[in-house]
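ingest -> validate -> predict -> emit
validate: passed (alphabet ok, no gaps, 284 aa)
predict: started
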Amino acid sequence: MLEILIHGAVSSAIYAMLAVGFTLIFGVARVLNLAHGSFYALGAYGTYVLTAQLKLPLLPAALLAIAFVAAFGVVIERVFVRPLRRSQLAVLMITLAIALVVEQALFLAFGSEYRNVPAFVDRKFTIGHVDVGGQRLLALGVGFVAIATLWLFIQRTRLGSAILAISQDPVAASYMGIPSDRIFSIVMAISAGLAAAAGILAGPFLTVQPTMWLLPIVKAFAIVVVGGLGSIPGSILAALMLGYAETIVGYLISTSWTEIVSVAATLLMLVVRPAGFFGRRAAF
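emit:
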């Protein structure tokens, strides 16, 4: 039971970092960004390149990778998403195309072989009678701190108030002089940075290869559907539910069945409650 609690919490933290960024950009800009999984992959690969090939220390390499992915997210928002934002279908198609281009670029640059992203913490810790990798515990702690910091930023800062205003009524916010396009770029940078951080933290104990973007975007989409599109509390709750559900299924049945959980949860929620648990128009 303790092992399920610990590993479920770790999975939930990674999923929450992915899903919160995904739902944040939807709540503010009203777009579904299918390139979100690419940010996750680029965070892991960026750290690999900076440490294995450029020989940078791990922490500066991770921070640089997050900054690079955040800047890449801003470029995507300004160049590809912003001109098409009035059409959600067009945004879906262009962001999916970007994800596929990133995947092929990673194939060309690194091949299909798995890459090893170094861990911040190599040793194992014993909690009760359960041995847990230090990197997993670090992922849990950083995920919690990152989401708590994001909430404080949105609730307690002037820029956060502007994000709230845009999410609730973009027309009224523009009349108040809030630059919506700049806010969209900032939110995309935050969303991309969170996904990159999740990839860096999960990379040492998960698979790092060019197609790694696909599973995170499926899970992020499942979480925001269950939690409610545009709701950060809903995404956090759904991430906890999915993380623990997959962990329980993996321990009691088989790990090969865990990927079905997110798909089944999405289908069930779309049938029973299409808006999700906390679905509403505002992002927060």
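The mean pLDDT is 88.
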